[in-house]
Amino acid sequence: MNVLSLFIALLIVELTFIMATTSLFIFNAIELPVFATLTILGLIVVILTFTLFKLFKMIILTNKILLKVKGEKVKLKEALRKPRKRYIVFQVVSEKTLSRDEVKSIIDGLIKETFGLIGSGNINAKLISYDENNMKGILRCVHSYRDAVLFALAMASVKTKDKVNIIPLKTTGTLRKAREIVKTLSID
Amino acid sequence: MKLQGPADFCVYFRNVEETLRTINYAFKIGFNTIVISLTFKEEDDLKNLASKAHEAKSVIKKYNLENVFLRAHLIGSSISWFKNCLRKIRYSFHVVSAKPLTVDSLRFTGRDRRIDVIVYENKNLSRFFDKSQMRLMKNTETALEIQFNSLWSSSNYKGLIFNLRRTLSLAVRSNIPIIVSSGSSSLSNIKTPYQLMSLLTILGIPYPYAKLAVSTIPLSIIKRNIHRLSKKHVETGVDIV
């Protein structure tokens, strides 16, 4: 039951009581001292009910705020938790051999251009290693943004007008496994 | 070999060597089925397409390429040209796709059952991929294809992403099958299945839908057409047992 409707019901009962005593006094059924006592009693009860109503309302509001704060705290806890990482093993397809710095600038530029400053900050991509001989490398990113990174890598051929293509070969959860894949996986 | 996904629904045929290299590389990066696309425009000669198809078929036969299929990609604006082409080439290709250049031809391709796939066109017709087009496509079980490499031909990426998101959500709501293909012609623009899926997930399409777009839907179209081209098939729902 709603607190407000309970308060209104109680108020109606109390006002009816006061009206009844007044009408009894008008028709001389009760004496003046009795009427005065009853009326004062009624008014005290009305004031008490109003105070109780305010108190209940405050308690409910406080509980709601406490719940909200608790939810925010849980959210904050999740945000503060160390994000999981994904390691993307990729291969660069290009006519000329690209250096580590060139690949790094291409990837950083692609991610920044595709997702902007905030997006690239969230993705937190980092070139872990790159071998110039076989043009394979490992790229680290936050696990929830793996698709975003794959999309940005797919845009490489579009941005460079088919001069450079970055092909993601495998995605792993550990750097050790990613290094093993770089050594073993060959698609040439 | 059993037909299985993921499938690259569009690898353009330029020349034999380049296409062979692309197909081999596509198999290595994770595709199990590949569809070679032969483009046919209004100004082209039909004999040229036939010779190209013959060349592609001989390559498939010579190198014993399994799970490689042929597709005719029609680009035109006239309805009569589309009708004429479909009458002549429908039975020589596994898949027939269309890229209409006018609204009339777009509506016609949506209505014709011989066309399996309509390729999303960004430049002028993007706003005509609306509810009525989706209704037409739903009735004829035509799929909507998005070619990754062809999408970015214009420089207006903002408008492209806005229109594409709208069209894709309309297609998902109307139960239109969506296909994402690479539209590649060489090693320099080939894409992996996960990269193709990422295009849809970036645009807000749920992951299961994106997965369907790269594997299940292209395979179902190929299977349907293999059955249609077989001698057992008489009509939809009528087969010789």
List key phrases describing it.
heterodimer, A: 188 residues, alpha+beta, Alpha-Beta Plaits, four-stranded antiparallel β-sheet, rod-shaped, B: 241 residues, alpha/beta, TIM Barrel, seven-stranded parallel β-sheet, two-stranded antiparallel ribbon, 10 helices, 9 strands, 20% strand, globular
Summary?
With 188 residues, chain A is α+β, with helices and mostly antiparallel strands. Chain A contains 6 helices and 4 strands; from the N terminus they run ααβαββααβα. Helices cover 64% and strands 17% of the residues of chain A.
Describe this structure in words.
The complex is a heterodimer of chains A (188) and B (241). By secondary structure, chain A is α+β, with helices and mostly antiparallel strands. In chain A, 64% of the residues lie in helices and 17% in strands. In chain A, strands 2-3-1-4 form a four-stranded antiparallel β-sheet, sandwiched between helices. The longest helix of chain A is centred in the first third of the chain and has 49 residues, at 32-80. Chain B is of the alpha/beta class and 241 residues long. Chain B has one domain (7-239): Metal-dependent hydrolases (TIM Barrel, Alpha-Beta Barrel). Helices cover 47% and strands 20% of the residues of chain B. Chain B is built from ten helices and nine strands. Chain B has a seven-stranded parallel β-sheet. Chain B has a two-stranded antiparallel sheet with strand order 8-9. The longest helix of chain B is centred in the first third of the chain and has 17 residues, at 46-62. The mean pLDDT of chain B is 88. The interface between A and B is medium-sized, with 20 and 21 residues.
